[in-house]
Amino acid sequence: MDNKKSKAVTIKDIAKALNLAPSSVARALKGSYKISKATTQRVKAYAVAHNYRPNLMAQSLKNKQSRSVGVMLSSIPNNFYAEVVNGIESVASSSDYHVMISQSHESYQKEVKGLEHLKWKLVDGLLVSLSNETEDLRHFEETIQQGIPVVFFDRVPENIQTHKVVVDNEGGSYQLVEHLIKQGYKRIAHITSSQQLSITKTRLRGYEKALTENGQPINECYIKYCSHGGGKDEEVRQAVEELLDLPTPPDAITTASDRITIKVLAILNSKEIKVPGRIAIGGFSNFGEPQLFHPPLTTVVQSAFDMGKKAMELLLQLIESKRPVKNFVSLTLPTELKIRESTLKKKR
């Protein structure tokens, strides 16, 4: 699949097909009270069915662009995505592009609606990190077929051909688990996000690889999934309590996101479980000042700002390319393990 732009359906096309005046179609698309409800519904249904987008030429006769891009992600309050957005805006502002953000809150339905909203806002391209619930990718496949460039970052699909930017999830997870093993931990658990996400698969692969290569067994009871990525307190609490209720509970827990890391630590503290005395904890995190937590947290730091910057640069290449782009890149940015008190050597 490439980003070749298809011929756009115009207001005149809709008017001709429905035997209406172009001015009536334009008013119906804007929801004008001057047009009957039945006609408005008929016009909008035809527009959706034929992938109508507002005429960019009417917006900008010079370049036919809105100079805006859409960003789709789970939640802006997430520290990681906040840094990603900063990276995106650093490139967008210097290139005179406006950034519009849509939050899925880990909902597939909100993601689909957000996508349609951004397309109606005339965005020239999209930067996307998939929601936890997203398995059906047709809404993005159709978007690319309509000629709207899309670049995926962080949570990326396997089967859509376009630019993608991720971090070394497998390598970062491997480093963290290997560090714990070297510190003397033998029952290492992993609390992660929903199973279909790319980051879940690659971080789990690094976890399992580190265990195997260091002669430790993979215990499925030590692997817990949070379908909302830690967005709901109860799913994290359930995961922790199930681990603690095992006949041989873990002596270390690795986590796959900011929200899961913070909530696991809070739950352990509320139960007066000493960290790292009884259970060590470390995870993928980009929150500020992890050394201020009690205890200071070992983290796998991701290049969030660079991810946003690179993704925006690649999107601009697609938007401003004079010819269809058929050769795509998948960038993998490095992670860095920051070792702190939460994973100190286990006392024998």
Characteristic key phrases:
single chain, 348 residues, alpha/beta, 434 Repressor (Amino-terminal Domain), Rossmann fold, six-stranded mixed sheet, HTH_LacI, transcription regulation, transcription, LacI/GalR-like_sensor
How would you describe what is shown here?
It comes from Flavisolibacter ginsenosidimutans. Residues 9-63 form the HTH lacI-type domain. GO terms for molecular function: DNA-binding transcription factor activity; transcription cis-regulatory region binding. Keywords: DNA-binding, Transcription, Transcription regulation. The protein is elongated, with a radius of gyration of 24 Å. A 6-stranded parallel beta sheet has the order 2-1-3-4-5-11, sandwiched between helices. The model is unreliable at 1-5 and 59-63 (pLDDT under 50). The relative contact order is 0.14. Among the domains are: 1-52, 434 Repressor (Amino-terminal Domain) (Orthogonal Bundle), CATH 1.10.260; 169-296, Rossmann fold (3-Layer(aba) Sandwich), CATH 3.40.50. With 348 residues, the protein is an alpha/beta fold. The protein is built from 12 helices and 12 strands. Strand 3, helix 7 and strand 4 (150-153) form a beta-alpha-beta unit.
